[in-house]
């Protein structure tokens, strides 16, 4: 864990050494405020909950989180420092996990700084704070899923723009995997078992269930398993490309 923390600290402060982390946090907070209070007409709904607030998270994450993950490995590869990083006396998996956790920490800070919205809904009514807490947990897990995919994609290229576009595309497919729009297309060509398997990978399906307060261990396990899978693949890609050199 010492190795993971060392990489985490290096990467986390690197985010704040450039305007990236601050710009990300500011844009996220501004966008959440605008979408919740103006587009979502929070005050006009007359309901003391944060369903409108959480409803925009999957789509904001879709475009903002790839901006955090695209630099994780693509920048290292382009600058040539990936060779130095992978020859340090620490396990490769520790490098992958440490860098991933640094990106997740930046996302978590941005999410935490939305707490005034939580306070606002408590001042205006009597919300179910357990449901809201579940929504925050689901949001963080979904952010972790997006970032794990982004980190894996970043490991496969040295071009940050390519990493960004590819991550947005991949995350978009995962987000909509369980939607009727996608499933209706597959039902025409695939058996029901295959369609159900595709539906089980839908981020929106699992996140919506958690945000509604139905904290099912299967939904949490889905995100944790997906994160672990993509970090494993991330490690394998770095190892293979290191061997290729």
Question: Can you put this structure into words, describing what you see?
Answer:
The structure is a single chain. The protein has 245 residues and is mainly α. The chain has one domain. The protein is built from 15 helices and no strands. Helix 10 crosses helix 11 and helix 10 packs parallel to helix 15.
Provide key terms for this protein.
globular; mainly alpha; 245 residues; 82% helix
Average the pLDDT over all residues and give the rounded result. Answer: 87
- What are the secondary-structure elements, in order, as H or E? HHHHHHHHHHHHHHH
Tally of separate helices? 15
In percent, how helical is the residue content?
A: over 70%
Query: How would you characterize the largest beta sheet?
Result: none
> What's the quaternary structure here?
single chain
Task: Indicate the overall shape.
Answer: globular
The count of domains is 1
Number of strands: 0
């Amino acid at each position: 864990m010492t190795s993971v923390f060392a990489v985490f600290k290096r990467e986390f402060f690197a985010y704040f050494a450039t305007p990236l982390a601050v710009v990300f946090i500011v844009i996220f907070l501004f966008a959440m405020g605008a979408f919740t209070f103006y587009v979502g007409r929070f005050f006009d709904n007359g309901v003391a909950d944060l369903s409108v607030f959480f409803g925009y998270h999957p789509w904001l994450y879709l475009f903002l989180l790839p901006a955090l993950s695209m630099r994780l490995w693509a920048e290292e590869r382009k600058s040539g420092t990936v060779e130095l990083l992978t020859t340090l006396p620490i396990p490769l998996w520790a490098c992958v996990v440490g860098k991933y956790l640094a990106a997740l920490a930046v996302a978590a800070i941005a999410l935490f700084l939305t707490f005034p919205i939580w306070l606002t809904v408590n001042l205006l009514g009597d919300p179910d704070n357990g449901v809201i807490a579940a929504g925050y947990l689901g949001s963080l897990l979904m952010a972790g899923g997006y970032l794990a995919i982004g980190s894996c994609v970043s490991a496969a290229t040295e071009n940050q723009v390519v990493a960004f576009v590819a991550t947005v595309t991949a995350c978009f497919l995962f987000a909509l995997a369980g939607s009727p729009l996608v499933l209706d297309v597959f039902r025409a060509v695939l058996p029901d078992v295959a369609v159900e398997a595709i539906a089980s990978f839908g981020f929106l399906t699992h996140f919506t269930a958690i945000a509604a307060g139905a904290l099912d261990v299967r939904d949490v396990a889905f995100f944790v398993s997906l994160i672990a899978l993509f970090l494993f693949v991330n490690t394998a890609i770095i190892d293979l490309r290191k061997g290729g050199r």
